[in-house]
Amino acid sequence: MLSTALVSALLATPAFAALASDWQTRSIYQLVTDRFAVANDSGPKCDTSDRVYCGGSFKGIVNHLDYIQNMGFDAIWISPVSTNFEGNSTYGEAFHGYWPVDITSINKHFGSPDDLKALSDALHKRGMYLMLDVVVNHLAATTDSPDFHSSFVPFDDPKYFHNKCFVQNYDNQTEVEQCWLGDDKLALVDINTEDDGVINTMHNFVKGLVSNFSADGVRIDTVKHVRKDFWPDFGKAAGVFTIGEVLSNETSYIQPYTENLDSVLDYSTWFPLVAAFQTKNGNCSALAEHTTTVQKTFKNGLFGIGSFLENHDQPRFGSLTQDSVLVQNAMVWPFVHDGIPILYYGQEQGYQGGADPANREALWSSGYAQDKDLVKQVKALNGARKAAIGANKKFISTAMTFPSTTQSTIAIAKPGLLALLTNVGTGGKASWKVDGSASGFEANSDLVDVLSCTTVHTDGQGGVSVDSDGGKPKVLVPAKSLDKKGSLCQNLATGSGSSSSSSSSSSSSGSNGKNGAVATAKGGVLAAVVATLVGAAVFA
User: Which of 2-11, 367-376, 401-410 shows the lowest per-residue confidence on average (mean pLDDT)?
Assistant: First the structure.
């Protein structure tokens, strides 16, 4: 039993929580821990086709936080940290983290619990957030032995799982939620998330994980494979921002999950985004039309949704087109989106890996170069977004509009920012005309294209007329919103940077870099304290 003194001491410690609103001004760098950096920078060989651990670690991430932060990212999302299936299966080793067997311990391949805590501390000292990836749906095993469940922790009995059946019909939601992923060679054994004991354990698990490692957010894997009404209480147990993976191209299918979690990954517009820029025959108007529909369908529109071009589950965009200018255009989208931009590691280095496992390359082979064109573009995009937020607080609460679209061009407007994209490809010709009522810019003012550091002038009504430069994208912001002492197009900037500085300071307040009010003790305090202690014990 807990002593009164211990309970009092725990309750006296202020707890901070990074909530959905705190994440809206952030931009996220997603990485696969095993493939981002090794602790000693030895640069071991890493052939993705081998599907084995290559040696990346929590310490390696700490050593290269400068690389991430210098591109303008203020949050990272790392792959799942729990102990995974050990050994080489038919499908390789579990270097990616999505085949858990023991949710109460840390994967030794990535480091120790203290190493993960050190990563969290290092991020918070920089004012950056940590997002942990969790797997709730399943545990992984080869099913040759009838007692394979006995190796699972803490669910070591068949009663904690749904009966064996592999998902075949994705139009049958009951089958999607209760049958297993994988196959007999490596089964992802579906956890019975209807069971009260399982529910309580999962709540304690995520509480302990977040508390012990001071996580600021949780990304949840395979959300659609767990009943929808499981998620609200799980999110409350986490106590921080939750974003779920619901892999579907149907907006109506994804929509209910926006009612049950803080956020989802924006697969809904990812499909038309890829289609719009994968070839010169893509349709930008279709992307704009679809996005407008999603804005009206999701619970909070696209605000706070995770916007991306690449991730670990999909072929890299660079493998779908060899036209570097199409890549440059598509990469702009997440940073001018209503939601939270997410960049998958290696995208900035121009990696071109195809489907899994080819899209999980070792970043150390790039030398973490910062002089490449796409690295510079990412830095400029993060800078433009932060400048727009700093200059106009309505940026994150005003839905993006599309004042000018054709099959080959799209203009995306948000307060203080106008992005002009095209799929005409390298050397192609395109033009945009956006009038003052739609651009939101002042009349007769100077704008800066942050991607080329060139100037565009607005007309007497604040409108702009712009021609393409070899099919390249443009991202326009007022010159006065850029700090003339900053690093973004310094020679054209006319602002003092005071608005941006204020914004940056407010978004990273708190001694540990976390935003949000101090949590206060309410009902159920003892249960919460017990859950925290359980988490601390199992992860120690």
Answer: 2-11
